[in-house]
């Protein structure tokens, strides 16, 4: 194990998330970034030796491969590195810490002391960011029938979706996962604090990156019949000391486009309310490749390696 400058190995660095993490880590002088030659990247012995030689490994792999890699690391015993898993494999696993540092008070400290951290999904980052503070505050009941609508750039959809949108005449817009079994639902339900499974309707637009996640609410069906401003105040208080998360005023023209935070690691939250109609829409905006993937992973890496004092 490294004794001075902490070292990091990205297992699966050639994918979209891995490349984003690598680009961010290359700018951090505090970290020594390690790689295997391309010919050895699928060699279990070479990967195991690399894992034993570094302080932290980032798993940017499909779910089954991430589970195999975690088992490989566990087999190293005292030489096992810390792990950040960017896949879905361990997000609701009881032995892994969920890597959304701003989710609740103390979460950043839990990440900092963890050996195994599961990086959040992009859609859940927006949904949890909006709903968890309101549920914790008692404004939204845990059993409320939540609907989450979201649109993402196509870069988060894997090779086939990227190829479809990169081709001439690719789709302008698509709803998908209409079987209502999207793999992000379990972590959304668990970490929002919901006791009723939410309806999640994702979609993809014909743009590379950027994301909007929205949650409509009937204000008169909530305890105490709050105003939209009450929801905004709870969110603002929760994220007051979180530099990467901002609660912003709704746009005067009533519009939001998904790409404004591209190439940043920020998350913006807003409450759009019509008090006369007693309706509101909560909206989260983020870069699905930033705070929704690579940026969150690097935030967790920094915490786990002691490079952040607080978040």
In short:
It contains nine helices and 13 strands.
List its salient traits.
31% helix; 6-stranded parallel β-sheet; 311 residues; 7-stranded mixed β-sheet; alpha/beta
Can you tell me about this structure?
This protein is of the alpha/beta class and 311 residues long. The protein contains nine helices and 13 strands. The chain has helices spanning 16-26, 44-53, 63-74, 107-112, 122-136, 158-166, 185-192, 228-238, 290-304, and strands at 7-11, 32-34, 56-59, 82-85, 97-98, 116-118, 147-153, 173-175, 199-205, 211-218, 245-247, 267-274, 279-286. The protein has a seven-stranded mixed beta sheet. The protein is globular.
Query: How much is the average pLDDT?
Result: 94
Specify the structural class: alpha/beta
Q: Which sequence of strands runs across the widest sheet? A: 8-9-7-10-13-12-11
Number of helices: 9
Write the layout of secondary structure elements.
Blueprint (H helix, E strand, L loop, with lengths): L6 E5 L4 H11 L5 E3 L9 H10 L2 E4 L3 H12 L7 E4 L11 E2 L8 H6 L3 E3 L3 H15 L10 E7 L4 H9 L6 E3 L9 H8 L6 E7 L5 E8 L9 H11 L6 E3 L19 E8 L4 E8 L3 H15 L7
Parallel strand pairs: 1-2, 1-3, 3-4, 4-6, 5-6, 7-9, 11-12
Antiparallel strand pairs: 7-10, 8-9, 10-13, 12-13
